[in-house]
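Extended Data, panel c. Modelled sequence:
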Amino acid sequence: MAASAGSTGASVEALEKLGLIGNHSYGLLCCVTVEDKFGDSVQLFQLRNPWGDFEWKGDWGDDSDCWTPDSKITAKWSSEDDGTFFMCMEDLQKYFSRIQLCRMTDGYKYSFFKARHKLGSFSMIRFVVAAPGGHHYLSINQTDDRCFDRHVDYDYSNVRLIVARIENPEAEEKKLIYKNGKMGQDRDIWEEYENLEPGEYYMYVEFDWPDNVQHTEFSVSCYGAAQTYFLRDEKA
């Protein structure tokens, strides 16, 4: 689990005064409920700056006067300068723009394919699920905004995904069986499949690139129980 602080250029200096780093990922370690000085329950989240120093200076930080002896025991509080600190729900929502949960499963297989399509166009990407099928995730990934200078006017584009199974992959005119669709405007959009049966599929990918687009590369990926393969299909 990870959380990232706000990333707008105007917020970077303000964040640093509070002991936070903009456009930077923190480990989200745990959540604990404590009582404050007035006997009210407060939800605290423990985060860690992977740099190992430079910590949150606001409420419930290491040097905050919000702590009581009992709340320190409950949260297993420590004053070490190790990059680890606590923050309440309200401040987490105020200063952090993203929380991500990464699911990993032993034995799952990962494959990906890089592609691009021009303004006003789309891509048809073919992939194969080897037998047996099972639980899988399909995702579309745009270039991370951290790859660009923060003064560059870059934003994630809206993207549409349609997945269809090819019923007769060897035929000249292929019959496609619609599976599902997804749309979103984020670095990653993904769809979960409880049972993606063996066979061949098409992923229809269409981006609403802005008129001034210069970077039209993206990738698609599959993570799941069975090995998958992406294929170039110029006739698609």
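The domain at 2-100 is CATH 3.90.70.10 (Cathepsin B; Chain A). This feature is highlighted in the accompanying rendering.
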